[in-house]
Amino acid sequence: MNNQYWLKKKLHITLLLILISNTILAQYNFKLSGTFTDVKNGTLICEYIIRGQKQKIITEEAPIKDGKFILFAKLENACAATLQVKDRQFYTLSTIFVPNEEAIVYGPISEDYKLTWTGTTFYKQYGKAKDFIRVYENEFSQADQLMYKGIKAGGNVNKLRKQNMEARREINYAKGLAAVKYIREHINEEGTLGIMASANIDSIPKLLSMYPKEISEGRLKKEIALGLEYYNIFVKERNAAYYTKNRIEMSRPALEFNLKGLNGNLVTLNQYKGKFLIIDFWGSWCTWCIKGFSKLKAFYAQHKDQVEIIGVACKDDDKQWRQAIIKYALPWQHVRSEDGIAEQIYKVYGYPYKVIIDKNGTVIKSFAGNDKEFYTYMDRLLKK
């Protein structure tokens, strides 16, 4: 009799919990749960943005007990979200909430790159993409530890910081290329949006445009549009600031550089006096450079009796450089800037970047990006 009573009691409690759970799920369409290994107890503060005619920031709180937490949200579209442990400034992470999905996270929030993500379809894809990028985040950490170790041992602080900055720059560049490659190879997976910010900045518009319609026009539509908007603002501000500060001086002799061509021959600017010369700074990784090749090739075919082009590959390794020249059938002279000096000489602040030199070896104009004005200017110049 006693056993039957407790069995009925247990069944009643189970049914009650199911009823409560179903009631919650009816109100919300997103669930985030998990375990933080570096927080035993506390309060998790969550902020996410509802985008519409009026943008609205929603703030939710959830208790953390023995590292575990559960949080629910009602979403119309995917949206950016920030999680922070209350009263702990550095215990913060940024992520994305997606309607009709469940996310499960595990690891230290204070080192968010170590977190593992899983759950329903989106978050399995998201977690897989994050795992792929983690190796580069570990390299950042190792570079920082090496610097701190050197400083602690009494090393030259300025020198160690400079070395650290150079190491981080190289890691970040490699990370950006890897992210681009991963997203391209998994472009049918929504979860790749989670590492879009890791991609090389100038590749982002092309990557966003590659998503199939069911993704670009679906629940991620607003976040994709916002990503493109932020990119355009960033590039506009970056170029304006950099150009104002570093623009190349016109009407002065072109500064010489000595770079090796495809056959190992030394290429100099003096070789091209007597013709107009276009120095085209580009890279095999630069989608906008590649996009502009078709028109540049047509221009060169029409005017090569008056104009020469030197393509200067930047931030490329030898193999990628050579393969790109063959793949896109680029018929002009090519060199590769291995040390970045050529870009510094001509104050390149974006790609592609074209510098025009007249027949006497004087710099007369420069253009950043695929500026339509470049061809208008060249047509006027060649008709004089």
From TrEMBL:
Chain ranges of the Thioredoxin domain: 248-383
Organism taxonomic ancestry: Bacteria, Pseudomonadati, Bacteroidota, Bacteroidia, Bacteroidales
GO BP term (any one): cytochrome complex assembly
PROSITE patterns: THIOREDOXIN_2
Organism: Prevotella amnii DNF00058
A Pfam family it matches: Redoxin
Cellular compartment(s): Cell envelope
InterPro entries, alphabetized: Redoxin, Thioredoxin-like_sf, Thioredoxin_domain, Thioredoxin_ResA/DsbE_sf
Statement: the UniProt record of this protein carries the keyword Transcription: no
Any GO CC annotation of this UniProt entry: cell envelope
GO MF entries: oxidoreductase activity
Keyword Disulfide bond among UniProt keywords: yes
Major subcellular site: other
Record-given protein name: Antioxidant AhpC
Highest taxon listed in the record's lineage: Bacteria
Key words, A-Z: Cytochrome c-type biogenesis, Disulfide bond, Redox-active center
